[in-house]
From TrEMBL:
Keyword terms, alphabetized: Signal
Region (Disordered): 24-44
Protein name: Extracellular solute-binding protein
Signal peptide: 1-21
PROSITE patterns, alphabetized: PROKAR_LIPOPROTEIN (PS51257)
Domain of life: Bacteria
Length: 460
């Protein structure tokens, strides 16, 4: 799920992950020695079978067929390696993921969200792959902040698959109707407020700007908005809440003013993504925060039109929230299984023109091609991937130019530790502001701060 712009910036909160797992049980000297001793190339005559997670579900026919075709092509290239695909939706089910990890029941090569890598490393639930990646052609060109997520104790424990960053998704048609230039989307929160007011003035139930405030999604968007204003959710050491701040008050005051003074957010609140996407598809919504992957969903599930939507960077230009996913290796894997798994990940996820980056095939399969994410490379592979993606684009890529160009000074920030618990608390703050005209922002932030400090203290 990234942009054609570079992510070659320091990611606050990500670089600190490199040292958090120095005491992880899986980083013992014995493990390091065993890994180094077996780190040569996989013997092509050695038969290896590995299970791999996150095969697309049967309901995603084109994606599943592409995966199966990739497996067949890989096994033809490596006839002694057998890939046993495991499908699940979602790929990382929060109801079962932790239990499977604790029970050692994960696939040999298992799927993870970036936000879970730190805990997995700390708990010794992944294999050390440091000595196995030297042969990966594009390894040195992977976005450093993505790799850092999978590092701990000076070792490497996984490889990235995709990444995303938040931006402002907007309806170009409504911008035109409101007398706004769709090629010049808002770049500040003051401009967002002014444009939302003009769009809402079109009437007929049109909402200028929508935001989430339920099912932890309100806390997630509050975090993105905090980053955009240069604020933090937690202190750099992750020990204390940091959102009871001028930036936190600015985020909530802006929402309060749009909701109650401008009436540009509509009367229906407690929204989440499943509410907002159909609003955008039906032409009833001007703007909301989103990653690029929302655009195909709006088109495919809710019959929107690609040409109606534009994507801009996060207003404020001080920071944006990033996320994504990747793969880690079962703690019980043999060296040969690790080697085979890395060969598969290189083929499927880390090579322009192949696997997830086979844009020519995706265009044939009528999959969306041309979104500015994922973008996991730097240097020559980044240029190669962008060229192939552009050549096979079937989307109006010019509509995403502002987002793709971005701002090289913007900081890209991961979600905070204990993210979902924190988001649940912040949901209440955002929903209060959007449903109660007289909500006391200072009191809401103070009470939320106390709760989050308790969550962080109990996490130690």
């Amino acid at each position: 799920m990234k942009r054609a712009r570079r992510l070659a910036v320091v990611v606050a909160g990500v670089t600190t992950l490199a040292g958090v797992a120095a005491c992880a049980s899986s980083s013992s000297n014995d493990d390091k020695g065993r890994s180094a001793a077996n780190a040569g190339p996989l013997d092509p005559n050695t038969k290896v079978s590995i299970t791999v997670g996150c095969q697309p579900p049967k309901s995603s026919k084109a994606l599943r067929q592409e995966w199966n075709n990739d497996v067949a092509a890989f096994e033809k290239l490596h006839p002694n390696i057998t890939i046993v695909s495991k499908d699940a939706f979602p790929c990382e089910d929060p109801k079962t993921f932790t239990a499977k990890l604790a029970g050692g029941q994960m696939e040999n090569v298992y799927y993870v969200y970036l936000t879970d890598a730190k805990n997995i490393i700390e708990n010794g639930q992944a294999a050390d792959i440091t000595n196995y990646v030297s042969g990966v052609k594009n390894y040195k060109y992977l976005q450093p902040q993505l790799l850092n997520v999978f590092k701990g104790g000076g070792r490497l424990w996984g490889l990235p698959k995709t990444n995303y960053s938040m931006g402002l998704l907007y309806n170009r048609k409504l911008f035109q109707q409101a007398g706004l230039n769709p090629d010049q989307p808002p770049t500040t929160w003051d401009e967002v407020r002014a444009d939302a007011k003009k769009i809402a003035a079109l009437g007929n139930g049109i909402v200028g700007y929508a935001d989430y405030s339920a099912n932890n999604q309100g806390g997630w968007h509050f975090t993105a908005e905090m980053y955009s204003q240069g604020g933090d959710i937690v202190t750099p050491d992750g020990k204390k809440a940091a959102f009871n701040s001028p930036q936190g008050r600015a985020v909530l005051q802006n929402l309060q003013q749009m909701r109650w003074t401008d009436n540009s957010m509509g009367s229906k609140q407690l929204l989440q993504i499943s509410d907002v996407q159909p609003m955008m598809a039906s032409g009833k919504l001007g703007m909301y925060l989103s990653a690029p992957d929302n655009i195909p969903t709006i088109k495919d599930q809710f019959q929107g039109k690609f040409e109606d939507y534009g994507l801009a960077p996060m207003p404020g230009a001080q920071g944006t929230l990033i996320g994504g996913d990747g793969y880690m290796f079962n703690r019980k894997d043999t060296p040969d299984q690790i080697k085979a798994g890395i060969l598969w990940l290189e083929f499927e996820n880390l090579t322009p023109g192949k696997g997830q980056f086979d844009w020519a095939q995706k265009a044939i399969d009528k999959q969306p091609v041309g979104l500015p994410q994922p973008n996991i490379f730097t240097g020559p592979p980044a240029a190669e991937e962008l060229q192939v993606r552009t050549q096979n684009a079937n989307l109006p890529v010019q509509n995403y130019k502002a987002f793709a160009d971005g701002d090289p000074k913007v900081k890209y920030r991961l979600e905070p530790p204990q993210a979902q618990q924190i988001y649940a608390v912040l949901d209440g703050v955002v929903s209060s502001v959007l449903t109660n005209r007289n909500a006391d922002i200072n009191s809401l932030l103070s009470k939320a701060e106390t709760k989050v400090n308790g969550i962080l203290a109990n996490a130690d």
